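To: structure subgroup
Subject: Chain for Friday's discussion

All,

I'm putting the inputs and outputs inline so they're searchable in the archive.
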Amino acid sequence: MVSPISLLTQRRHLPTRIGDAAKRSGASVRMIRLYEQIGLIPRASRTASG
């Protein structure tokens, strides 16, 4: 299993969609958003559409 934290903090690759990160890590999108909210992982940059 891949850590959602490692998927979302990889800076040398193209941006990972949160849904893709959730599928690869086994964590839900909601859980990844919670990790961002509580500061466990840095907030991802987002496009204007979200």
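Points worth raising on Friday:
The CA atoms of residues 32 and 38 lie 10 Å apart.
The chain has one domain: 1-50.

D.
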